Amino acid sequence: MAVNAAVLVWLALLVVAQTLVVRAVLVVPIFRREDGKGEKTEAAAATAAAAAAAEPCGAQKVFVFLGSGGHTGEMLRILELYRDTLLGTGSHVVVGYSDQASRQRFESFSRASLEHPHAEYVRFRKAREVGSGKLRALCTVFASTLQSVFTLTKLHATLVGGPHLVLLNGPGTCCIIAYWLRFLDVVTWSRSNILYIESLARIRTLSLTGKLLYPVVDEFVVQWRELAQKHRRARWYGIIV
């Protein structure tokens, strides 16, 4: 009887493992068949980029993550360009940030540019400090991951219940965000809509964050034609920041 019980347990675990593998294949975008090229003409850039952002969501919840420095500047320009689509009336905005200066810049932007300047703010630890040594970087990544797991689990539950968009554009913390949301998609039978926009500074090669996120985001947008020609899943709509 004990042997039979052990066999049944192993069979059950095998079925669960196979189910999760199949689910992961269905959820992770890299396994999907892509139709057509990732390039658009300059003339179609504005409408196409707006469509890429709007398609997954409609009236929606929007989560944006602000990296420090230039990443925040680029994200604010993206939000300004597509504010009617992403931040219009009826949208619930959740702003993730890793430093107080980025939050203050978004608050200034929302007061100046938004009709209804209200957002929910969620603080994340930085995944890596610029110039830190390997040991310190490892400790920082571990602490950031642990904090992010709890924060993102709660956030995921509020996002996937309706139309939503997760908008990312650069820093290493984006990797933790995207991969944990995908993991939750697999185990909770849900679906996150994740859009990543590569930095304008990346002309011929992807950033490390871009390379890591390329397989798992729904839309991977680059701002230079050369990158779209090199990467099958990349979408190019011209310079959008």
Task: Write the topology of this structure.
Blueprint: H1 2-27, H2 45-54, E1 61-66, H3 70-81, H4 83-86, E2 92-97, H5 100-113, E3 120-123, H6 134-159, E4 164-168, H7 173-188, E5 194-197, H8 208-213, E6 219-222, H9 225-230, E7 234-236
Parallel strand pairs: 1-2, 1-4, 2-3, 4-5, 5-6, 6-7
Helix pairs in contact: 1-7, 6-7
InterPro entries: Oligosacch_biosynth_Alg14
Main location: endoplasmic reticulum
Membrane topology: Single-pass membrane protein
Question: Any overview of this molecule?
Answer:
Heterodimer with ALG13 to form a functional enzyme. It comes from Lachancea mirantina. This protein is an alpha/beta fold and 241 residues long. It folds into two domains: 1-33; 35-236, Rossmann fold (3-Layer(aba) Sandwich). It contains nine helices and seven strands; from the N terminus they run H-H-E-H-H-E-H-E-H-E-H-E-H-E-H-E. It has a seven-stranded parallel sheet. The longest helix has 26 residues, at 2-27.
Summarize the structure.
The protein is α/β, with parallel strands linked by helices and 241 residues long. Helix content is 50%, strand content 13%.
Question: What keywords describe this structure?
Answer:
241 residues, alpha/beta, Rossmann fold, 2 domains, seven-stranded parallel β-sheet, 9 helices, Oligosacch_biosynth_Alg14, endoplasmic reticulum, transmembrane helix
